[in-house]
Amino acid sequence: MLTKTRTKLLKAAVIGAGNMGAGIAAHLANAGVPVLLLDIVTDPSARNAVAERALQRQLAGGGFMRQELADLVTVGNLEDHLKNIGDADWIVEAVVEDPEVKRDLYRRIDEVRKPGSVVSSNTSTIPLAQLTESLPASFVSDFAITHFFNPPRAMKLMELVASSDAREGLTADIADICDRLLGKTVIECRDTPGFIANRIGNFWMSVATLEAMRCGLGVEEADAVMSAPFGIPRTGIFGLFDYVGVNLVPLVWGSFMRTLDAHDAHRRYDLTADAFIHRMLERGQTGRIAGQGFYRTQLVDGVRSRQVIDFVTGSYRGLRNIDFVSLSEAKGDLRKLCEGSDTAANYAWRVLSELVCYASEVGPEIAADVGAIDTAMRLGYNWRYGPFELADRVGLSWLTKRLLVEGRAVPRLLAMATDRGGFYPSGKLLNTKGTPIAPTRAEGIGALADLKTSASPVYGNKAASLWDIGDGVLAFEVHTKMNAGNLEMLDVLEAVPSVVKSGFRSLVIGNDHPRAFSAGADIGHFVELIRRRNWAGLEAFVVRGQNALRALLHGPFPVVAAPFGLALGGGCEIQLHANYVVAHAELNAGLPELRVGIVPGWGGCTRLLERFTEEYAADSIRAAKRTLEAIVAAVPSTSAMDAASMGLLCKQDAICMNRDRLMMEAKERAVVASGEYIPAANARIPVAGRQAAGSLLSAIDEAVEAGQQSEHDARVARALVRIVTGGDVTHGTLLSDLDILVLEREAILALGEAPNTLARMEHMLNTGKPLLN
């Protein structure tokens, strides 16, 4: 089911079973690659203990997309099993950041590896030239740096560094594997300290930390400035430091101080020389791993209380209210925040100006163009905007003018970008020499956003659009909040068959949202209808959804869904009605309607019952139980592989590891399917009937009596039993899918009248959390 690469990777080995090494091994297993994970021997009586513990940590921490994928990882130790790397195609080194230790290991690897096997280091601090010093040319030609970010499964960036002595095709092979098989965005970097993301990111962390202290801001105050206004995660600077560990300052920041040129601006912000940081290290206040860092959580009068370290006293105190006029008036506008007159405004300006100036100063040294730097920061640090995108947003003329007023130098790249109207002028981007160039993408990467600069939708409204994506393929895009399905979305969905007939041969369903394929049907519309007791309107909304999706399933053209992220409720039902699915590997699909007090009503129950009936060879009782269990669990999948185990994906469906390739792979599948497509036949489902319903209902009653299920959950479960067993019919009766859809509608109308249903929906609408009433 996984997308394949052009480059064969039959087996891998990872040496070093720390968080990074074990995480890389787990993610290779996620891609279906057998992996050997090795580390040192620390206990002669349990020689593989280090690697075994690392494997267990990955299982507990979500490193694997499915628990059974851990079977692809074989653990061992360097003393007994190094010879076993001899058949590995790729050997990843992730040991301690000591060049001599690494070089000694490389010599041992070179003795046993097969000719042409790739060897790479996950280092983030040591230049490649230093790593390969005194090693044979044959080894150097197969060697590269592959810098993953932690955790490897989740973080999309991979920085790739190879020497000029690398063999032809080495970087292309590694990039292909990491892109297509591991789902990474690969940025080829120069062999400079920290490469791209950490060169910029660690400088930003130094500036944001030391300027907060100099400005007299508290930890929580600095994080309020250094988060949403900058498009940075809510951890801000000090929450991030606690996550990565203050203990890394001597190692990582120390490496920069040893390797950067004397004139590098980072030397003005030397964290390794800061007395407060030193005291934190002496006290073991190193962050989350130690239970205390810039933040800690304590029990105060029996209540868990979050506290912050005080930069003046060095002790912990409670959080202060954030009360800066500049923050409240800016409302997220970074330029307006910087134009304020209070401490928060001054802090924001100091960090912004230093960040943009530093990126402009070192840009020509570390990257070919500004896009590579911005991409590295977005993906490596989870920023919404890279430094050059941030600069364009606040306005380069304003920024450079303020620098000049303060008597500060304007870096050459920044000055040229100002003259050209931005770092991204007129749909282009600047290379780091200041010349506008056209953006480029690898083959097979694309998004709907590419069309929107030069084309208009074929059809659409403010909720959804239909796009011509070429080769006779039409794309259906929802663009509501979290891509929820509402009445206007249904207007466009209902128009699909006629639009396809006007000159298209297949349909792809997908969008560019960063988080959600579709979070489900619009709960607000349900709430409005139930409050007004508009049962006719509620039934009409459900019927329209059922009919629109059924028309896709049985239409004369193939439909390919490209789900990713959240595909919940109605979004999952859209997926279930596609003829084919190309799913992103990180898919959180499911039918959680029970959490808002109803059942799936756009054919979700029907489609699952159809699938499980087929899977269990028409064993109607088993199919009914499996469908009931899947929907009552109300738990979304943790990955596409998990979704397949839940019946939400089929054998003919594919899994795409790289989100950037999802739409194009779905389009490719739609083109192929159009030449072989036979419309789905109307289903005839043998149902379990009244007798089976009785035993299922008894089990629900027992769960309520045992306190394992609330009465309203039981009410929903009973409604589901009626649907999955076919209502008032006998065992083995053949029902059409239309018959089951009627039962879905009846269940929603009955549950809509239950008082707890409205309470659940209102609570979810207002808080985003389920109400267990």
Can you walk through the features of this model?
- Its EC number is 1.1.1.35.
- GO terms for molecular function: (3S)-3-hydroxyacyl-CoA dehydrogenase (NAD+) activity.
- InterPro entries: 3-OHacyl-CoA_DH_NAD-bd, 3HC_DH_C, 6-PGluconate_DH-like_C_sf, ClpP/crotonase-like_dom_sf, Enoyl-CoA_hydra/iso, NAD(P)-bd_dom_sf.
- Residues 194-296, 350-401 form the 3-hydroxyacyl-CoA dehydrogenase C-terminal domain.
- This protein is α/β, with parallel strands linked by helices and 773 residues long.
- The chain folds into 3 domains: 12-188, NAD(P)-binding Rossmann-like Domain (Rossmann fold, 3-Layer(aba) Sandwich); 197-437, N-(1-d-carboxylethyl)-l-norvaline Dehydrogenase, domain 2 (Orthogonal Bundle), CATH 1.10.1040; 450-685, 2-enoyl-CoA Hydratase, Chain A, domain 1 (Alpha-Beta Complex).
- Helices cover 45% and strands 13% of the residues.
- It has 32 helices and 25 strands.
- The protein has an 8-stranded mixed beta sheet.
- Helix 1 (19-30) crosses helix 2, helix 21 (487-501) packs parallel to helix 23 (535-553) and helix 26 (620-633) runs antiparallel to helix 30 (711-725).
- The two termini are 40 Å apart.
